Amino acid sequence: MNHLIQAHELQEEALDHILRDLAVEAFSARFEIAPNPCVGAAVLSRGRIVAKGIHRFWGGPHAEVEALSRAAASMTPKESWDTLVVTLEPCSSTGKTPPCVEAVLASGIKHVVIGALDPDPRHRGQAVEILRAAGVEVTLLEPKLGPDYAWGLPDISQHFLNWNSSERLRRPRPWNIAKWAQTRTGQLIPPQKVGEGRWISGPTSLAEVQLLRGRVDAILTGYGTVRDDDPRLSVRAPGDASSPPLRVVFDSYLHTPPDARLFAPIDSSAAAAGLEAAGPVVIFTRPGPDAKRARSLLEVGAEIVALPPDDNGQLSLWAASAWLWNRGVRRTLLEAGPTLIQSYSDHDLLDQVRVYSGDVAGGRGASLGRLLSEHRQNARVDRESGSDVVLEYFL
Ligand SMILES: NC(=O)c1ccc[n+]([C@@H]2O[C@H](COP(=O)([O-])OP(=O)(O)OC[C@H]3O[C@@H](n4cnc5c(N)ncnc54)[C@H](OP(=O)(O)O)[C@@H]3O)[C@@H](O)[C@H]2O)c1
After folding, report:
1. How many CB atoms lie within 10 A of CB 265?
2. Does the beta carbon of 360 sit less than 6 angstroms from any atom of ligand 1?
3. Which of 140, 297, 385, 389 could form a disulfide with 302, with the two C-beta atoms 3.0–4.6 Å apart?
């Protein structure tokens, strides 16, 4: 046993227990935060938990910040907070949110227990150094082997280790989430008559998708979807419409019509109330597009980007990914038909899949059943969303 017990009268067993509980809670948010790691944190006072926090969604507050703000809202005075337990080394650089190490220092807590160091070689150990230099005691705890979740990164954040792999750092590209709705027979196009409208999934799932749209940097689709569905690809309530994602169409021949709903203005009252917003439209196309079509799309505000062909003569999805990365896009939502989703999968460009199976009989067109059976489904969850069934996993 080490000085930790004497200094804080906290048993290592107790810390192990707290870290395991935090890990289980943090893991439950994995699909909302990826490619960020699952992280849980707790503020302690004399060995008792004052408040806990986890990282709940991409772009949202980190676990330490949530735990500290919940502690501030508790009855326990700040002066008696003595320890912060966190499953992963606090971040020391500014990303979507300010560095957590600053929030920890500002809290005045004098002891930080860390479950795992940051795996990113550019940041690893930096927060530990900053905290120690400021006089904060830092304890690194090793997960004990056991049947339940430990808090080690391979246990709860394998996706984050992949995101930080040398291959990924050498050739960076956004984290791609493919999402689709399918009928009971696995088809993405509903039968001609499906209740009142053309939706396969129900209102709870549609609301979830709006939340997801508000938490990505780009929504990607193919010309087939624009042609058949004429979608807006906007973010609507309950999604966060404050910073709407880019809307990207893969359209080799610029067939997208300038009067598509993608270019229609958002209803002014919905926009003013923050209930709907839409990002800029980017159209990926072949080099040397038809000048007249290009002009009419530029006039309605589209940005046209020529991509080189891949070995099959299709728009290179790797080139698209590199362009998006350079544009600052880190997390995308692929809301396309079966053709583009299959292409993304064939090029090993999918990181996460979410499938809504609606209670709709029959259907038209291709199914992605083969793709689903070929994917190695990691950290999979099967859950319900209203009357729909949702399957979600990492690749
Ligand atoms: N259930 C759902 O969740 C859902 C979601 C979206 C759409 N849909 C349905 O899907 C149907 C459309 O299916 P779809 O498969 O035609 O649509 P899609 O996958 O959205 O679009 C396919 C088109 O994208 C273009 N494209 C450009 N580069 C590509 C590349 N590298 N790889 C693959 N495609 C590329 C191709 O057209 P060009 O050669 O002309 O460029 C291709 O035909 C619609 O009826 C729609 O209702 C369903």
Report:
1. 7
2. no
3. 297
